[in-house]
Specification:
The complex is a heterodimer. Chain A is mainly β. Chain A folds into two domains: 120 residues, Methylamine Dehydrogenase, Chain H (7 Propeller); 100 residues, Lipocalin (Beta Barrel), CATH 2.40.128. Chain A is built from one helix and 20 strands. In chain A, the strands form five sheets. A four-stranded antiparallel beta sheet of chain A has the order 1-2-3-4, with no helix packed on it. In chain A, strands 5-6-7-8 form a four-stranded antiparallel beta sheet, with no helix packed on it. In chain A, strand 11 and strand 12 form a beta hairpin. Chain A is globular. Among the domains of chain B are: 56 residues, no CATH class; 70 residues, Arc Repressor Mutant, subunit A (Orthogonal Bundle), CATH 1.10.10.790. Chain B is flat, with a radius of gyration of 60 Å. By secondary structure, chain B is an all-alpha fold. The chains are: A mainly beta, B mainly alpha. Chains A and B meet through strand 8, strand 11 and strand 12 of A and helix 18, helix 19, helix 24, strand 1 and helix 25 of B. Strand 12 of chain A pairs antiparallel with strand 1 of chain B, so a sheet runs across the interface. Chain A: It comes from Macleaya cordata. Chain A: InterPro entries: WD40/YVTN_repeat-like_dom_sf, WD40_repeat_dom_sf, WD40_rpt, WD_repeat_MORG1. Chain A: It is found in: Cytoplasm. Chain A: Belongs to the WD repeat MORG1 family.
Chain lengths: 248, 1028
């Protein structure tokens, strides 16, 4: 998600971060992370920082709320994923997952799982219910993962300019989407609300749309003058009209 | 009196006399009164007003037997209980107030509620419902031609509601208004209207009319036999009249559905048409149309001859007039309406009633066309991108022009061009505007230097464009700044993600593991694809057999795996042939590989197939690096994604926050334990029955080779005896045995005195045989173990030493005194005497196998647990010892063999044990503590000290120096002792990593071997005795 998803009118400026800021939003709270190795937990209405979670040894790449907004999970360059407690006043992480061997770029949370994409080429699923870690090695650095809306698949954007669609249950590679450029930076990818199309960003500023099933490039459009970073699809159906993108 | 009485006249019913009250009651009252007065309180009885006893004695039921003071049930006020089992689900009880009400209360409540009764069914709903039900019932009784309920649903018996009935009785008829508003004044108009109506509705509205007239007929018949006999239903309430379908539209088709504006027009027109005058006066067109209208079939469009200009009015629509009239009737005076209508008809169509058409209308319907889109409009959002590269670039580049002579001007132009190129055309415009008067900027307007400027600008733009190195998306975004991922990354301070080094190396690192897996797969699966090498990869096409071999060779070369037994050639071939062929193959393979490198990738497809097939069987796989250089990429792709699963422990708090039950229930993770093969080995059960090996050894008279040859036998026996327990293959078992033999408890042989008498001459031989056997096996095992642990395995000790040692041992026992002295010298004088004082029998036949200590030593050294210091100590000790007695020879020899460090400790340990067994002194305690860690080692030391003969009994302290190895002289008693001695077990467990298993195994083993052992040890001790 991007901060651009916030209301178009600037209601509040949340200051405090240096470096990149990514935010995950639930209704009233918001968390952000950045290059300052901290995760901030904001109160949206007042614009105050409720808590600052320190502990990452390097910049934080992604942050997400869990289902109940009780836990903030952050992924950092320090090869770890940390879960922070929003309920208690503790600023210590609830848990540190450091089985990664490289920078963790992206995380997804389900009700029971933490899924993280890592530059070491793995997409790791931590099933809290089963107490299992499932590591799907893609062989290529993963810089963004995104879950399909039905929760059965994971779309992983790899640094070999390929999006890979994985079956979560079996770890099978279902499809590969190519055509765009993604070689060195984090490019977002996601699926449309109907799971019919795959959307991915390209380093040349294009947005690519692929058909989910036959992996053909349906359209690619020049979205930004600059390299674009984020794609978020709101709940509303028509993605064409509602693509949210941030640009520079 | 009688007469008096007769005079009385009685009115009414007499008041009940006192006597009529039930005698019982009366009695009770009387009694109560009496008792209260006379009887002492505790003898009084409590009676209710009926005279029944209320209180009873305990034996007669206590207070108020029966449910008198309860709710009337046995349970009384006992609260309800809830039980629900899997089989007997509790019903969900919904309680209502009715559950708690008595009957009378219920009745009361019911009285308050309102319900309809059939009698006053004002609207007839209830009766209709009833009638329908009745009909349904009947329907069921009599079979219908049409199955199902359809006709009954469609056709309902009609029951008039009470209201209607009442009205009827009062003279009302259907269609009449209820108020009596008939005024004669209206009658004329009504009649007229009716006539008019009849007149003009004779055309298309005829059926309706007829229906209407039916209604009217009703009125006439029933209500209006009156003067006129001609009553129009003008004032009646509207009757819902079904409009019979008269047109030929489809059911539900509404011709005005999408053009409601025509509906009104049509309606008006039709109504206007009904005006007789209008009708007559209608134009020829209309006549034509209307005459035709009946013939125009809906849905068939309008024919070429038919008029279109009258709009597509619905000529079929009908019944509007009726509705209209009704509506207007409700609104009131129909007369007015009719008159209006007439007027309307005369004036104009399309005018609402009550309105007049304006004489002059300046209103004109104006259609608004879509706004004109300017030519330069672009339906994209333009980000404020300053560049106009696209436009400029699209055109041909301006011609190269020499710069103007003036240096200033040239510089200015160049600088300006760069600026414009950076900031966009807007800047140029602005500055042009600004500097109109400035001659210096005349180049902007086509003055001097304009060409140069144009060229320069173009160049600058070109340059900038090149910088971005992006294709210009001319069409949609002609003016945009190009930002590369790099620049963005720079802005954001992002680091380009680098491929994890591990990524590439992982396959290398894990190559071994993968290879292992692969080998497995290779042994179990035959990759069919391998045989299908492309033609190019078949250098031995001529000789299919050879080709086959070659392929096999290739397979093995590239994929590793277990060599087939007949690898490298057919059985017919000689060794030399095979070798030659192999060379051939090597060359051919290389050639093929090179060919592939040139782009043919000849063997690739098969490779890939193979890998793919492999991949399906093993989720994780790897690439053998280097061997398959081409197509590696693809292959990697094929390999991925691979899935691995690990255990992962979510923290309990995390589970809580995720609202998930902790899968590990908050149990802490188990201590990380190095998983080595040893662990698994320990679990593999037991152990050759030592007697067997012993026997065989005896039979073989102790030669090394023979003993070795016995191994199969041993294993066989093992398997036969313990198949149930041992799932492992025999070659795994062997080390297990050994291991146990080496490290299992041996300890004191208390019980061996009983077997003391048995003497066997062959003892020595068996000893030798045993030791050699053990040694060999142990050597094997330890070597492998050492390899596995990554430790250096010291070279095997010369066997001769063993032999010497063994042979020496009995003799050594002779020198008990020396033996005893040694310890005293070295360390603990206190312990020795005690040890010595132990009965001979307890002391157990010692040191049968010198080899054991060695083995242990070996092992220990493998494990590298010893410190140099210890070794040094030991050196000292050994020196001392050496000075002491003969036996020391063996000692020193052992030192030389390099297993020394253990020995030192062991000697100490043994001492400790000794002291321990002798209910040792406190210093012993401390030393014991200190040495606890090494106790396991000390066991070996015991064997060392075996030499020292009688110390053996000290070993009972739990040091089971495994010395006996297979022959291991552990007795059950011994073990029981161990068991009782709790303090020892930790040591042991330390030694093995898992003490428990070992322990139990020891026990098992001991049980099995105890018999033989007894004999053995007995003989030993015997021999010792003899010597002594």
């Amino acid at each position: 998600m991007s901060s651009s998803e916030l209301p178009t009118k600037e209601a509040n400026v949340l200051r405090g971060h240096e470096g990149a800021v990514l935010a995950a939003r639930d209704n009233s709270k918001l968390s952000s992370c950045g290059g300052d190795r901290q995760v901030f937990y904001w109160d949206v209405s007042t614009g105050r920082v409720i808590r600052k979670f320190r502990g990452h040894d390097s910049e934080v790449n992604a942050v997400k709320f869990n289902e109940y907004s009780s836990v903030v999970v952050s992924a950092g360059y320090d090869q770890s994923v940390r879960a922070w407690d929003c309920r208690s006043h503790s600023t210590e992480p609830i848990q540190i997952i450091d089985t990664f061997t490289d920078s963790v770029m992206s995380i997804c949370l389900t009700k029971t799982e933490i899924i993280a994409g890592c530059v070491d080429g793995t997409v790791r699923t931590f099933d809290i219910r089963l107490g299992r870690e499932i590591s799907d090695n893609l062989g290529q650095p993963v810089n963004c993962i995104s879950m399909s809306n039905d929760g059965n698949c994971i779309l992983a954007s790899c640094l070999d300019s390929t999006l890979r669609l994985l079956d979560r249950t079996s770890g099978e590679l279902l499809q590969e989407y190519k055509g765009h450029t993604c070689k060195s930076y984090k490019m977002d990818c996601c699926l449309t609300n109907t799971d019919a199309h795959v959307i991915g960003g390209s380093e040349d500023g294009f947005i690519y749309f692929w058909d989910l099933v036959d992996a053909s490039v349906i359209s690619s459009s020049r979205a930004h003058a600059s390299v674009w970073v984020f794609v978020t699809i709101p709940e509303v159906v028509n993605y064409n009209g509602y693509l949210h993108m941030s640009h520079f | 009196m009688d007469s008096d009485e007769e005079d009385f006249v009685f009115y009414g019913t007499p008041i009940q006399r006192e006597e009529d009250v039930t005698s019982r009651k009366k009695k009770s009252i009387a009694e109560a009164a009496g008792q209260l007065r006379s009887v002492v309180p505790w003898k009084q009885e409590v009676l209710d007003d009926e005279g029944r006893r209320r209180f009873h004695g305990a034996f007669t039921g206590g207070f108020s037997a029966g449910y008198y003071n309860t709710v009337g049930s046995k349970e009384g006020w006992t609260p309800q209980t809830f039980t629900s089992s899997r089989k007997n689900r509790a019903e969900v009880k919904s309680q209502s107030i009715l559950n708690f009400l008595d009957d009378d209360e219920k009745a009361e409540i019911e009285g308050q509620s309102l319900g309809t009764s059939l009698q006053f069914d004002t609207f007839g709903f209830t009766s209709a419902e009833l009638a329908r039900k009745q009909a349904e019932k009947e329907q069921q009784d009599r079979p219908s031609a049409i199955p199902g309920l359809v006709p009954d649903e469609l056709i309902l018996p009609v029951a008039n509601s009470i209201g209607v009935k009442l009205l009827r009785k009062m003279g009302w008829r259907h269609g009449q208004s209820i108020k009596d508003s008939r005024t004669n004044s209206l009658y004329g108009a009504l009649r007229e209207a009716r006539k008019a109506f009849l007149a003009f509705s004779s055309g298309d509205a005829e059926p309706i009319l007829s229906q209407f007239e039916l209604n009217k007929g009703d009125h006439e018949g029933d209500v209006e036999p009156s003067a006129d006999g001609d009553v129009y239903a003008s004032q009646s309430t509207p009757v819902f009249v079904l409009n019979p379908k008269q047109d030929m539209h489809g059911l539900g088709y509404d011709p005005f559905k999408h053009a409601p504006e025509f509906r009104e027009r049509k309606r008006l027109r039709v109504s206007g048409n009904r005006e007789p005058g209008n009708r007559r006066g209608s134009s020829m067109k209309e006549n034509l149309f209307s005459s035709k209208s009946g013939k125009i079939a809906p849905g068939f469009g309008i024919g070429a001859l038919e008029e279109l200009d009258t709009e597509d009015e619905d000529i079929y629509a009908s019944g509007f007039d009726f509705e209209e009239t009704h509506v207007q009737e409700i609104e009131e005076p129909s007369r007015m309406l009719l008159e209006d209508k007439k007027k309307l008809g005369k004036t104009e169509q399309g005018v609402l009633p009550g309105f007049k058409v304006a004489s002059t209308s300046d209103y004109q319907l104006e259609r608004c066309g879509p706004p004109v889109i300017p030519d330069d409009f672009e339906p994209y959002h333009k980000f404020s991108a300053p560049l106009e590269i696209g436009n400029k670039l699209s055109g041909p580049p301006p011609p190269e022009v020499p710069p103007p002579e003036e240096n200033d001007l040239r510089l200015l132009i160049e600088g300006f061009a760069a600026l414009v190129a950076r900031c966009g055309k807007l800047f140029e415009d602005l500055s042009r505007e600004k500097n109109k008067k400035n001659p210096l900027f005349s180049f902007l307007d086509g003055g001097k230097g304009h060409d140069y400027y144009a060229r320069k600008l173009w160049e600058e733009q070109q340059k900038r464009n090149d910088q971005t190195k992006q294709q210009v998306y001319i069409k949609s975004m002609p003016n945009e700044q190009k930002m590369t991922a790099e620049s963005r990354g720079k802005i954001l301070g992002e680091r380009p993600l680098e491929r994890s080094s591990k990524d590439s190396s992982s396959s290398v690192v894990s190559a071994d593991v993968i290879q292992l897996q692969f080998n497995l797969s290779d042994t179990f699966t035959t990759p069919a694809s391998i045989s299908e090498f492309p033609e190019a990869a078949k250098p031995f096409k001529a000789d299919p057999e050879k080709q086959e071999r070659f392929e096999r060779f290739l397979k093995e070369k590239y994929y590793g795996g277990l060599r087939t037994t007949h690898s490298g050639g057919s059985s017919k071939m000689s060794e030399a042939d095979r070798a030659r062929e192999k060379l051939d193959f090597e060359a051919a393979a290389e050639a093929i590989q090179k060919g592939g490198g040139h782009g043919k990738l000849t063997e690739l497809p098969s490779n890939q197939q193979f890998w793919a097939s492999l991949n399906t069987q093993f989720t994780s796989g790897g690439v053998e690096q280097g061997k398959i250089p081409q197509g590696e990429e693809q292959m990697i792709n094929k390999m991925y994604p691979k899935r691995e699963e690990y255990q992962w422990r979510p923290s309990s708090l995390l589970c809580k926050r995720f609202d998930i039950i902790d899968p590990y229930m908050g149990k802490p993770p188990p201590l990380p334990r190095a998983k080595s093969r040893i662990d698994s080995l320990i679990f593999t059960p037991d152990f050759v029955k030592p007697t067997k090996s012993e026997e065989t050894a005896v039979a073989s008279t102790g030669s090394l080779f023979v003993s070795k040859s016995e191994e199969p036998v041993i294993t066989e026996q093992k398997t036969s005896q313990e198949t149930a327990i041992e799932p492992n293959t025999t070659n795994v078992e062997r080390p297990v045995d050994l291991y146990k033999a080496i490290f299992s408890d041996d300890s004191d042989d208390e019980g061996e005195s009983s077997t003391f008498n048995h003497v066997e001459d062959t003892e020595k031989k068996t000893e030798v045989a045993n030791t050699t056997l053990n040694r060999l096996i142990a050597g094997d095992f330890l070597e492998s173990l050492g390899k596995e642990l990554g430790l250096e395995v010291p070279p095997e000790a010369p066997i001769t030493i063993n032999k010497v040692g063994i042979s020496a041992s009995p003799k050594e026992t002779i020198s008990t005194s020396a033996d005893v002295k040694i310890p005293s010298v070295s360390d603990k004088p206190s312990s020795t005497p005690i040890a010595f004082s132990k009965p001979l029998a307890d002391q157990e036949a010692p040191n049968c196998n010198l080899s054991h200590p060695e083995i242990i030593g070996e092992r220990a050294s493998d494990r590298n647990e010893l410190k140099e210091a210890a070794a040094r100590d030991f050196g000292n000790n050994s020196l001392v010892i050496a000075s002491k007695g003969k036996k020391t020879k063996t000692h020193s020899r052992r030192d030389q063999s390099g297993r020394s460090p253990e020995d030192e400790r062991s000697t100490r340990g043994s001492r400790h044990h000794r002291s321990l067994s002798s209910t040792s002194s406190e210093e012993d305690e401390t030393t014991r503590k200190r040495s606890r860690r090494h106790r396991s080692r000390s066991s070996s030391s015991d064997t060392d000290s075996d030499d020292h003969g009688y110390r053996k009994h000290s070993r009972k302290s739990g040091k089971r120096s495994s010395s006996r190895g297979k022959s291991g002289s552990s007795s059950s008693k011994k073990h029981s002792k161990h068991r009782s001695r709790k303090e020892e077990s930790p040591n042991r467990s330390f030694r093995r990593g898992s003490g428990k298993e070992e322990h139990s195994e020891d026990r098992k083993r001991s049980r099995k071997s105890s018999e033989r052992e007894k004999d053995y040890s007995a003989s030993k001790s015997d021999s010792h005795k003899k010597y002594r």
